[in-house]
Each structure stands twice: as C-alpha cells, then as structure tokens.
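Figure-free illustration: sequence to structure, shown twice.
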Amino acid sequence: MSSLRARLPERGMTIALLRRGALLWLLARMLVVAGGAALSGHVSLGIFAPTALALSLAVGAMGLLDARRRNEHRFLANLGVSPLTIVLLSIIPALVAELALRIAGLQ
C-alpha cells in the first residue's frame, strides 16, 4: 500500500485532477451526444461500450495534455508522480460515470 501511496500526488492535487477529469468527461460526453443528435436527428445518451471506453481514453489523454499545458507535469514529476498516474486519475471519473450511466439504464 505504501508504494501506491508514494506514486499518488498530494490529496489536494489528486482531487483537482479527479475534478478536471470529471469536467473533461462531461464536456466530451456532451460533444458526443450533440454530434449524434446532429447526425441522427434525435437526442440519445446511449453509446456502445467500445465508444465509451474510447471516450474514457480520450479524456485521459486530454487530462495529460491539460496538465502539460499548466506545466503541472513537471511539478508532479519532481514529486515522483508519473504521467501514467495523471492519465489514470483523469480516466477514473470517466469510467465511473460511464458505468453509472450503464447501471441506471440510460445507455
């Protein structure tokens, strides 16, 4: 457990990365729903599971790019946090939200 704890950033930074991941997922999901509505003519929250996984991976990439844009990746690297950890912290809210939509039956 201590090895995992050593790889995570400080609690405040972890929460900030998780919040940004949730915001990025929300914006990406709205873009997918709007694009689907524009192409098909009706609004539907449902997307296929592979598309949801690809969306989550895209959110992870956007989270890393956002951290790089803010130069946080350098700060976090000095604290021993890898870019993979930044990506994973960005993906977690997206995966949880997609799973919640599936369980709620909205997909």
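We now fold a second protein in the same way, so the two outputs can be compared directly.
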Amino acid sequence: MHGMMDGMAGMVWGMGLVWLLVVVLLVLGVVALLKYLLGGKR
C-alpha cells in the first residue's frame, strides 16, 4: 500500500515537471514571437 502511494506521488511529480517545462517553453515562444513581430515592423 505504501509503495503504491509513493509511486503515485512520483508520477504526479513527474507530470507536474513536464507541464512546468511545457508552460515555460510556451511563454518563451510567445515572448520571442512578440519581440520578433514588434521589432520587425520598424
């Protein structure tokens, strides 16, 4: 029982890490796109 709980916690933690990475990449992509669009017009 205890081992299963530990496994679940590890899976949830791993998923959280993956989502955090995805969010960071999305934010960086949006910022880069905005900089490109705003900077490219001038």
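Summary for the second example: Residues 1-42 form one domain.
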